[in-house]
Design brief:
One of its GO terms (molecular function) is glutathione transferase activity. This protein is mainly alpha-helical. Helix content is 53%, strand content 5%. The protein has a domain of 173 residues: Glutathione S-transferase Yfyf (Class Pi), Chain A, domain 2 (Up-down Bundle). α6 runs antiparallel to α7 and α8 packs across α11. The chain is globular and about 55 Å long.
């Protein structure tokens, strides 16, 4: 089925774009319809649920999310959308295979970062900005006056301050990391040839790739990233000794931003060093892993054997493309 939007390329390395089928009381797998009528009751540990029955065509709105399950920022936004029960059309854009460098996508977002959230002509790039928009949207639809609290916002900004890039790349086997980096650089060079008018902007991304490799050679950069992460986790451990979730007794947008960090640590097999040694965070992580939003956004890709399936698909895709020099 043809899909319209800023990006329409398909990606064989993942399970494909999702199309969401609205179902009463549950999130479906496809195109987004939502009702302006919201239930007033708040379910335990959650938010007011936004209904799915549209009264007429004027009540319909379309949200599009360009993301990938590997992207931590994408996970943050998807958790927020799932928790708020807002339907959207999902487009997979795999940065490991250079799909975020495709000309049509790059013209819209020269940073090439994920996710991108689109509501009609309104496009938002940063995860924290998208999540704040989702919160405001939910409040508007429910008709309640319940903006993000200062405590939630404080946690969101604290989480946003830690960049996972160096930490993640430093814990990936060098051979694999360099293979992907080399492939993506070749993709960028190929796109420069396709779109000469964007050559200078593509060159910025190429330079960034080399600068990242240089930063990884300095152990001090990794040490700094690890210290910042440990400080964030220590603060969370202290908070979770008082409350069930980061900002109180209910799951909030702060948790939507924090949970993907724990998932990234688990994906890198570093739970013992960063999670298990903090009993409150360990209990918290076990709690959130039971939430439907976690199972849908993260669990289906990275729980148990699934993470090896997800990683192997991308590895095979990269090897085949490299073999035939298809960039």
């Amino acid at each position: 089925m043809e899909r319209k939007g800023i990006y329409s390329g398909d990606d064989a390395a993942v399970e494909g774009n999702e199309k969401r089928e609205p179902k009463e009381g549950k999130r479906g797998k496809s195109s987004l319809l939502y009702s302006l009528a919201a239930q007033k009751a708040t379910p335990p540990g959650g938010y007011p649920r936004i209904g799915h029955a549209a009264r007429n065509s004027s009540d319909l709105a379309e949200f599009k999310l360009y993301h990938h399950p590997y992207s931590m920022d994408s996970q943050k936004v998807r958790l927020a959308l799932e928790e708020k029960v807002i339907d959207y059309t999902s487009y997979h854009v795999n940065p490991l295979t250079g799909k975020n460098m495709d000309v049509s996508f790059f013209r819209t977002n020269p940073s090439a970062k994920l996710p991108i959230f689109q509501n009609g002509s309104h496009v938002i790039f940063r995860a924290i900005d998208i999540i704040q928009y989702i919160e405001k949207l939910s409040v508007s639809l429910s008709g309640e006056d319940n903006p993000i609290s200062s405590k939630v916002m404080e946690w969101m900004e604290k989480i946003e301050d830690w960049s996972p890039k160096i930490f993640t790349l430093a814990h990936i086997p060098a051979k694999c990391r360099l293979f992907v980096s080399k492939f993506v650089r070749r993709v960028v060079i190929a796109r420069m040839a396709q779109a000469p008018d964007l050559a200078s902007v593509y060159h910025v991304k190429l330079r960034e790739a080399y600068e990242t490799e240089d930063r990884l050679k300095d152990p001090q950069n990794l040490k700094q990233s690890e210290e910042e992460l440990s400080s964030l986790l220590d603060d969370a451990e202290a908070q979770l000794s008082v409350t069930t979730y980061l900002a109180g007794e209910y799951f909030t947008m702060a948790d939507s931003m924090f949970v993907p960090i724990l998932a990234r640590i688990a994906l890198l097999n570093l739970e013992k060093e960063y999670i298990s040694c903090r009993p409150k965070i360990a209990a918290y992580y076990n709690l959130v892993k039971r939430r439907p939003s976690y199972k849908k956004v993260i669990g289906r890709y990275f729980s148990g054997w699934r993470k090896y399936r997800t990683l192997s698909k991308t590895s095979c895709f990269l090897c085949i493309r490299s073999m035939f020099r298809k960039y």
